[in-house]
Design the sequence.
């Protein structure tokens, strides 16, 4: 069985128009923007929004004028693909173990980016006093009483079909559904709205992500994720390019589409139980979104 912590926790999109895209997504999924990362904006190249879907998150990032002037990785990707799926983020039980195993997969390119965050307080208390630094491969997540902490580590799309990220956060990342533990990418106040509105009227969160890898066999990419994540993930015997995570979630790996799209090309969303489906599938930001019935 998959470790219950091993979940698809976040999807990231890349768009030219942050406000328009975020507004469309909020309306389509009946979900609010809960965080805009001031540290990302202060970096000068990207701005973002985080939309809460149950206890998971949909991020959209957008290059600034400065980024377009500098021709960054994100602007070049937008010029090639248009608005598109950008990253799949999986929560892991132990980042010190998973960072090493993920970095050894494929060509072994290793870490693209990684940061640690530690903040005094508790889940929901905000980010006042947060400290951050560059993550070193194999380091454990710091866990001290009276603090919240998190680590994010990213790996090259050449090895994983899309920009891949693993996350470990503390405390409280195992309490699903309606998790109110720490999750740094979405800030540290989103937890305060979970009791009043656990989810919107369309979806409770992610059921699956579909990834089209450029110049790589889908089965091999699936195996790389499995070897990298470990922790009880398993390949579906009937579908060798499908990886099973916890709580019925899956990651599907496919050939590039006829239009050449690669990376995150599809996302399945759990429909709200007992509510008529608001749509079967829609296309937003270069991604096909499908509503599926909740796992038994």
Sequence:
């Amino acid at each position: 069985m998959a470790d219950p912590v091993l979940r698809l926790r976040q999807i990231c999109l890349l768009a030219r128009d942050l406000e328009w895209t975020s507004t469309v997504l909020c309306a389509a999924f009946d979900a609010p923007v809960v965080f805009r990362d001031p540290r990302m904006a202060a970096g000068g190249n990207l701005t973002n929004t985080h939309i809460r879907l149950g206890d998971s998150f949909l991020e959209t990032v957008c290059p600034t004028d400065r980024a377009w002037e500098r021709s960054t990785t994100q602007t070049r990707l937008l010029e090639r693909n248009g608005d598109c799926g950008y990253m799949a983020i999986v929560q892991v039980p132990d980042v010190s173990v998973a960072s090493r195993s993920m970095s050894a997969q494929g060509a072994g390119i290793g870490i693209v980016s990684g940061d640690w965050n530690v903040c005094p307080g508790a889940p929901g208390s905000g980010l006042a006093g947060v400290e951050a630094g560059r993550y070193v491969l194999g380091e454990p997540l710091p866990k001290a009483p009276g603090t919240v902490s998190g680590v994010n580590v990213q790996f090259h799309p050449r090895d994983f079909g899309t920009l891949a990220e693993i996350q470990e956060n503390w405390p409280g990342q195992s309490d699903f559904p309606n998790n109110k533990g720490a999750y740094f990418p979405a800030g540290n106040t989103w937890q305060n709205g979970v009791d009043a509105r656990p989810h919107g009227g369309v979806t409770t969160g992610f059921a699956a992500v579909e990834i089209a890898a450029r110049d790589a066999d889908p089965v091999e990419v699936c195996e790389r994720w499995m070897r990298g994540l470990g922790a009880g993930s398993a390949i579906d015997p009937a579908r060798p390019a499908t990886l099973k995570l916890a709580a019925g979630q899956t990651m599907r790996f496919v050939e590039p589409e006829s239009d050449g799209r690669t990376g995150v090309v599809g996302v399945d969303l759990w429909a709200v139980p007992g509510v008529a489906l608001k749509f079967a599938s829609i296309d937003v930001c270069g991604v096909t979104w499908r509503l599926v019935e909740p796992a038994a």
The chain is about 20% helix and 35% strand. The mean pLDDT is 95. The first helix runs from residue 18 to 29.
